[in-house]
C-alpha cells in the first residue's frame, strides 16, 4: 500500500560504514602513553596497535614484537633506504619508526589503527594522513610527570633530565593536536575512557563516512 504511493523502498544501507581511522597518541616521555595504550588494547581488541621498530636496547621486561621490534641500527637504516618506513625519527638518540606495511595492511582490512609517536612523528603522520586524529596526552603537572619518570626507573638521571627538558619544549606543540587528554595520577581509567569516546565520536563524523583513510600511503 505504502509502496504504491512511495515507489520501491530501498533496503540499501543509509550510510556506508565509516572508513578506518588512524589515531595518533603522543605526549611527553613519562606521561603514560604506553600505560594508556595497554589498557586501551584490553578495552578495544578490535583496533590495530602498531608496534614501533627501534634501535634502542631492550629494557628488562620488554618483549620483542609486543613493546617494540628491536633491530640493529644497520637494519633500521636499510628499511629506511628501502622506503619501508612510514615514519621514523631519532628520539633520545635512538631510531624509532613505523613500518609502512603495519599501517597499510590494517587499513586495507578495514581496521582502525593506533600509533604511539613522539611529537616529531605525530607531525609527520599529520602531513602524510591529514584525516588522522591526533591526541596529546598530558599529566596534571610537570611535577607529576617527573615523579612518574623517577618512579619508572628506566633512565639514569642525566637521560631523565633530557626527557624533562624535551617535555618542556614539546608542550608548545599542543595546539597542533586535535585533542588533549589529561592522564591524572591514579586516573588512568578516565584517560582511556576519554580516548575511547574520541574514537567513537570521530567515527560518527559525517565526512568520514566516505573518506578514504590513508589513501595516499
Ligand atoms: N594515570 C597514571 N597514574 C599513575 N601512574 C601512571 C599513570 N599513567 C602512567 N603511569 C605510570 O607512569 C610511568 C610512565 O608511564 P609510561 O611508561 O606509560 O609513559 P610513556 O608516555 O609511554 O613514556 P615514554 O614516552 O618514555 O615511553 C609508568 O611507570 C606508568 O605505570
Ligand atoms: N617518532 C616516533 N617516536 C616513537 C615511536 N614509538 C615510540 N616513540 C617515542 O619514543 C619515545 C621514547 O620511548 P622509550 O620507549 O625509549 O621510552 C616515546 O616518548 C615515544 O613517544 C615511533 O614509532 N615513532
UniProtKB/TrEMBL annotation:
Keywords: ATP-binding, Cytoplasm, Kinase, Nucleotide-binding, Transferase. It is found in: Cytoplasm. InterPro entries: GK/Ca_channel_bsu, Guanylate_kin-like_dom, Guanylate_kinase, Guanylate_kinase_CS, P-loop_NTPase. Residues 20-200 form the Guanylate kinase-like domain. GO terms for cellular component: cytosol. The keyword ATP-binding applies. PROSITE patterns: GUANYLATE_KINASE_1 (PS00856), GUANYLATE_KINASE_2 (PS50052). SMART domains: GuKc. Pfam families: Guanylate_kin. Its main location: cytoplasm. The keyword Flavoprotein does not apply. It comes from the Eukaryota. It catalyses: GMP + ATP = GDP + ADP. GO terms for molecular function: ATP binding; GMP kinase activity. Its EC number is 2.7.4.8. Essential for recycling GMP and indirectly, cGMP. Belongs to the guanylate kinase family. This is Guanylate kinase.
Amino acid at each position: 500500500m505504502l509502496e504504491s504511493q512511495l515507489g520501491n523502498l530501498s533496503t540499501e544501507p543509509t550510510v556506508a560504514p565509516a572508513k578506518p581511522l588512524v589515531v595518533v597518541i603522543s605526549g611527553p616521555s613519562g606521561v603514560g602513553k604506553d600505560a594508556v595504550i595497554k589498557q586501551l588494547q584490553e578495552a578495544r581488541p578490535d583496533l590495530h596497535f602498531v608496534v614501533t621498530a627501534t634501535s634502542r636496547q631492550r629494557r628488562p621486561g620488554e618483549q620483542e614484537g609486543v613493546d617494540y621490534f628491536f633491530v640493529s641500527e644497520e637494519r633500521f637504516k636499510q628499511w629506511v633506504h628501502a622506503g619501508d618506513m612510514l615514519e621514523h625519527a631519532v628520539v633520545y638518540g635512538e631510531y624509532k619508526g613505523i613500518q609502512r606495511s603495519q599501517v597499510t595492511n590494517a587499513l586495507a582490512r578495514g581496521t582502525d589503527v593506533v600509533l604511539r609517536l613522539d611529537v616529531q612523528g605525530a607531525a609527520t603522520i599529520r602531513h602524510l594522513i591529514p584525516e588522522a586524529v591526533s591526541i596529546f596526552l598530558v599529566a596534571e603537572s610537570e611535577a607529576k610527570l617527573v615523579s612518574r619518570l623517577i618512579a619508572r626507573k628506566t633512565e639514569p638521571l642525566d637521560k631523565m633530565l633530557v626527557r624533562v627538558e624535551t617535555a618542556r619544549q614539546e608542550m608548545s606543540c599542543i595546539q597542533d593536536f586535535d585533542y588533549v587528554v589529561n592522564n591524572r595520577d591514579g586516573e588512568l581509567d578516565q584517560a582511556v575512557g576519554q580516548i575511547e569516546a574520541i574514537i567513537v565520536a570521530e567515527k560518527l563524523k559525517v565526512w568520514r563516512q566516505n573518506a578514504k583513510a590513508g589513501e595516499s600511503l
